Fold this protein.
Amino acid sequence: MTALPRNVTSSTDLPAARWLRSSYSTGANNCVETTRALSGPWIGLLAVRDSKDPAGPALLFSPESWAGFTAAFQP
């Protein structure tokens, strides 16, 4: 079994990514952005990056892992 990649060194490595900003974002540009990888070895994974560094690295999560993470912070 092959392990899933955990990150990409540059968000620009995710072709055709449509990054979405958190709905909790303020105008201070201090939030996270997410996208679903559409191709390459990351296909189907959710990528998360810092909005202040759009060409920087992105962490990769399976859809199930991301759902569990965000559910932990629901009121």
